[in-house]
Design a protein that fits this description.
The chain is mostly helical. Helices cover 68% and strands 0% of the residues. The chain has two domains: 6-94, Orthogonal Bundle (Rna Polymerase Sigma Factor, Chain: A), CATH 1.10.1740; 99-256, Arc Repressor Mutant, subunit A. The chain has helices at 6-15, 18-40, 49-66, 75-94, 99-119, 125-132, 136-146, 170-175, 182-200, 204-215, 220-227, 231-250. Helix 2 crosses helix 3. The model is unreliable at 157-168 and 173-179 (pLDDT under 50).
Length: 257
């Protein structure tokens, strides 16, 4: 039976005491573990899940302190976006992905952008491998190597100047009751439209993986079960989908600034 937390939220917002906040942290801690397990699927062994959980707890605390129970938003929905964002910010601060792997990812993005721009359709594995001058086997190995770099959040595509310390997350703009200014609304709509068009052009299986992972909240293992594919195959499809999106959107970044 689900516990009614409304009285706890009311007590915390009225008194703002640490004891009640800790009660909320303990109750919602499972959200941090849930998000950490999902992110860990695409991470290399150099990142411990305990590190993700530590960053996630910071996001959970931030969500609890800023959440308004009177708004028509479920706390779980609000918190998960902040928890995930906190984990990704933590990973970025660690700079845990080797420079060589980042460079490989950039080369793949450029290859996808070049080929798909020329062909006007999604490129095949063979076409990308040919552009890179490598065998199909080496191409598959390359995809596996850069899989950890394809962890994204929507704020990666927000308008912003190069070198900004912190960019505002789309999810925060979507969740605010107070309407943003006209420029923010226009920027958000442009980003959403570009993302939507780019996703619509993905090959069907990659599109389904993006939908299940980012919109339905399924893990790669759960998606594999749903599509009758192995978890490693789903991971590969996810990696290719993100590389295609980044390659496609990289040419349009000037429209978002």
């Amino acid at each position: 039976m689900k516990t009614d937390m409304s009285s706890v939220w009311l007590r915390y917002k009225e008194n703002n005491d640490l004891e009640t906040r800790d009660e909320l942290i303990v109750y919602y801690a499972h959200l941090v573990k849930y998000v950490a397990n999902r992110l860990a699927i695409n991470l290399s062994s150099v990142v411990e899940i305990d590190e993700l959980i530590s960053y996630g707890i910071e996001g959970l605390i931030d969500a609890i302190e800023k959440f308004d129970p009177q708004r028509n938003i479920k706390f779980e929905t609000y918190a998960i976006t902040r928890i995930r964002g906190s984990m990704i910010d933590g990973l970025r601060s660690m700079d845990w992905v080797p420079v060589s792997v980042r460079q490989k990812g950039k080369e793949l993005e450029k290859a996808y952008a070049k080929v798909e721009s020329e062909l006007g359709r999604a490129a095949t594995d063979e076409e990308i491998a040919a552009v890179l001058g490598i065998s199909l086997q080496d191409y598959n190995t390359l995809l596996r190597d850069v899989a950890a770099t394809t962890i994204i959040s929507l704020d990666d595509f927000l308008p912003g100047k190069e070198g900004e310390e912190k960019k505002r997350r789309i999810v925060e703009m979507l969740q605010e009751d107070d309407a943003p200014d006209a420029l923010s609304i226009m920027e958000l709509e442009e980003v959403k439209e570009l993302l939507s068009k780019s996703i619509s052009r993905l090959p069907e299986k990659e599109k389904m993986v993006v939908y299940f992972y980012y919109y339905e909240g399924l893990t790669l293992k759960e998606i594999g079960t749903a599509l009758s594919l192995s978890e490693s195959r789903i991971s590969q499809l996810h990696t290719k989908a993100i590389l295609r999106l980044r390659g496609s959107l990289s040419k349009k970044k000037h429209l978002l600034v």
